[in-house]
Amino acid sequence: MTVSGLDKKSIRKFTDREIFIKTFYDALKYQSDKHKIIVFYGVGGIGKTSLRKELSRQIENELKEIIWSTIDLDIPAYRDQETALFILRNTLSQKYKIHFPSFDLAYTLYWQKIHPQTPMTKDNFPLFSGTGVVAGIFRALGEMPYIGVIPKLSKAIKVSGNVFREWWKKRGEEELTMLHTLEAKDILDRMPMFWASDINEFIEKKNRKIVIFLDTFEALWENMRTEGGFFLRDDWIREMISHLPKVLWVICGREKLRWGELEDDWDNYLEQYLIGGFSNEDSHKFLIGCGIEKEEIRNIIISSSRGVPHFMDLAVDTYYEIKNNLRRSPVKTDFAKTQQNVMARFLRYLEQTEIDTLKVISCSRMWNQEIFDLLVKEFRTGYGATPISNLSRFSFITEGTITGTWTMHELMSDSLQAMLEENSFRQIHKFLFGYYNVKLKEVDVKNINDELKKAVNEAYYHGKISLGFEELKAWFNHISRIFERAGIWKTITPLIEDFIILLKGEGSKYLKEISDYNILLSNLYEIQGKIDESLLLLEESLKIRRDLFGEEHHDVSKVINNMAVHYAKQGKYEEAGPLFKKALEISKKILGDNHPEICNAMNNLAIVYSFEKNYEMSESLYKIALSIREENYGKEHPDVAASLNNLAILYEETGRFSDAADLYGKALYVWEKSLGPEHMNTAIAMNNLANVYTKIERYDEAEEFYKKASFIYEKIFGDKCLEYGYSLNNLAAMYNKKGDVKSSLETYISVKEIFTENLGSSGSDTINALKNIAELSYLNKDYSLSEHYYTELLEIYYKSRKTDNQELINATINLADIYLLQGKQKEIKLFKEKTGKNLVKKFGVNHPTTVLLEKHLVKLI
C-alpha cells in the first residue's frame, strides 16, 4: 500500500523509551504526600517533546481516570506565571470541570490593579463568561467590585451555586479577606498558592490523580546570558509545586534541574533522566514502523542521524517526498551520510516554491493563517492557495498549543534561516517586527492584554535581528517605559535584562544607558521582592556613573539617593543615613546651598534622623529646607506648605503640640490658598491640625477640622472610601476622649460599615472599630446593642487564624457580664456551651485560654 505524503506522519510509531515510560507509570502508582517530580532532559531534537506527547496520548487513550494538562514554555507568553496559570486553569476547567474560585478572584483583583483605568467587560476579560465564580458574581452584581470587595462577594455568592457557597464558607472568605488590600506584586506572588489551593480541594473531594507536563523548560532562560538571578526565573513554578504534593509533575528540558543547590530537600523529590539517541535496534524498529523496508536504506539513515529522532524524521520525510513526488522507490544514494547533509538531501526533493516558503516561515517563531499568507505574499514564494495545514505533512512542523497556530522545530528553523541570504534574512525579520509593532502602536498603560504581551516579545525578538542598534534602542526606550508604568513587570523584565546585555555588547559607547536601565531594572526587582538583585544593580550603576562623571555629579547623587531610599524602605536607617548625607553633600556642591532640588535629599535625611531619635538634627534640616523653599518660591508655594507640615510632624512627635498646631495652621493656609479649599493636601493639613487639637483638649476646634477634612475626603473619594473612614475614625476617637459617648458611638458605627466594606469583617481596623462600639454601647448602658457587637466580635475572633488571646478573653467575659446584667440565664447557659465548643475547636482542651474561660463561666452560672 502506498503511503501518501499527507498521512505518513500518522504511521510513525513511538519507539524506544520503554524505561522512561515505565518510570512514568511507576510514578502514577506512587501514593504519598511527598512530592514527585520527573525530569527528562537531553539535547535539542533528541525526542523529549515526542516522549511527552506519547505519555499524554497514553493517558488520554488508556488512563482516562487520570487528569492531565500541559504548558509548553516555548510560547513566550506562557513564561509569565499569571498567563501560564490561567492557561492551565482554562484547560482543566473546560475539560474536567474543575473549579478555581480562589485563583479566579485573585487573578481578577490582580487584573484590576494593573489596569486601574480600564473597565472590566466581557470583551476584555474572559472570566466574565462561563460558569466560574467571577461570572456568577458579575451576573449577580452587574460588575466586579473593587471597593468593598468582600461584603459584595459574600452577597453575590449567597445567590450562586452550592459549590461556590461551600467554598466561600470553607476557605474562600478567610483566604481572600485581605487580598484586595495588597499591591499587585503581592497578589502575583500568591497566585500559585491560590491555584494550588483550588486543585487540592478538587483532589480531596474527587480522589483523582493529576499530571502536569511542563515542556521546553529551558525557554524560561531565553535572553538570559548571565548566572545572576538564575533561580528567579522558575521560582513561581517551585512555589506552585511546593503546594501540590499529590500532583505528578513531568518536566522536559535540555538540562538537569539545579533546585538542590537552593534547598537539599528538592533532591529528595526530583527524579532526573538523561534521554539519549535511539539504540541501533530501536532505530531499525522506528524506520520499519515508518514503512522503510530496505535494510541498506535504514542503515545509512541510522548512520547519518546517529540515533537523533529529529534527523531520522527528516530522513523519513525525504523518503516519502521521493516516493510521492518523483513516483519512484528511494535508493541508498538518495540519503546523506552525515547529519549536516540530511537537510540538503531532504530539500533536493521538494519543489522550489515549497523550499522558499519554508525558508520564509522559518523566521517566525509561531504563525497562523494570517501571518502565513502575509509572508507568502510579501516575499513572493509562489506558494499557492493550498491550506497552511498542507505543510504539516512534514515532521518538523507541528500545530501549536494555541488553536490555529503552527511552529517549526528549532533545529530545522535554524538550518533554514542559515540558508537565507543576509539581506533576505533581515528583510523577513523586519517585516515580522513591523507586523507585531503595528499592534503596539496604540498601546498605553490602560489596554495591555495577553495579545500585546505576546506582541512585545515577538517584536523585540525580530527587532534585535533586523533593526539597526540605534533604531532598536529608540523603540525599546519607548515601549519598555509603557509596560513598566502599566505594571506588566513579568513581561518586560526579561527583555530589559536582555537589552542590558546588548548594550554591554557595544563596548563603552552606552555606559550611561546601561546605568539608566540598571536603575529601571532595580526598581522592577524591588517591586517583585528581589531585594539583593536590586541593590547589586544600583551598585553597578553607581560605579558606572562615578567612572563617567566623577564623584561630584548630579547623576551620581541621584543613584546614591536611590540606594539610600532602598535601605530606608527596609528599615536599615544606619545604612541609609550616610548615603542620604553623601547625596545631599554632592547636590550642594553642584547646585549650591540654596537650590530647591536639594530639599528632597534634606527631607529624606531628616526622616532618618527622626527615626534614630536625633530630633535636633532632624529639626535643623527641616528648617533649612523650609528656608530654601521660601527663598526660592515665596511663602505661599505648595512645597513650602509641605516643609511646614514635615516640621509640624516632628514637633507633634516630640510633644511640642502648640508649635505643631501653629505650623499645621500655616501649612493649611498655604495649601488652601495655592491648591484650593477642597484639595487632598488641604484635608491632610486639617486632619493633622485636628489631631493636635485633640491632644491638647481643644475639642471644639478639633471637631470643626475633622468634619471639614471628612467633607473633603467624601467629596473627592465618596462616602465609602477608606480615607473618609479614617477621618471619621479620628473624629470618633476625639468624641470618646472628650467624653461624648453617644457621638463617639454613632460615628464608630459609620466607621465600622466603611471599614467592613473596604477591609472585610476581619480586618484589624474593622475589629478595632467593632470593639470600640461594643465597649462604648456597654458604657452607654445599651446592653442589647453591646451584646450584638460583642457576639459579632467573638465570631470573628474564632474564625481568624491570628487572634489576640487576651482580646478574646476580654470579649468573652464582657459578653457574659452583659447577659447577667440583662438577667438572661437561659442565654448564658447556651453561651457557656457554645463557648466551650469553640474554645476546644480553636485551642484544644488543655490550652490556658480554654481553661481560664471555662473556669470563669462556671462561676457565673
Give a quick rundown of the structure.
It contains 38 helices and 7 strands.
Q: What does this protein look like?
A:
With 861 residues, the protein is mainly alpha-helical. Among the domains are: 20-80 and 209-273, 3-Layer(aba) Sandwich (Rossmann fold); 99-207, no CATH class; 283-350, no CATH class; 352-413; 421-549, Alpha Horseshoe (Serine Threonine Protein Phosphatase 5, Tetratricopeptide repeat); 781-860. 66% of the residues lie in helices and 4% in strands. The strands form two sheets. A five-stranded parallel β-sheet has the order 2-3-4-1-5, sandwiched between helices. The protein is globular and about 105 Å long.
What gross morphology would you assign? globular
CATH class of the domain at 421-549: Mainly Alpha
Distance between the first and last residues' Cα: 95 Å
- Summarize model confidence as the mean pLDDT: 81
Could you tell me the CATH topology label of the domain at 421-549: Serine Threonine Protein Phosphatase 5, Tetratricopeptide repeat
* Major sheet description: 5 strands, parallel
Structural category is mainly alpha
Number of strands: 7
Question: Stretches where pLDDT falls below 50 for ≥5 residues?
Answer: 1-14, 135-161
Number of helices: 38
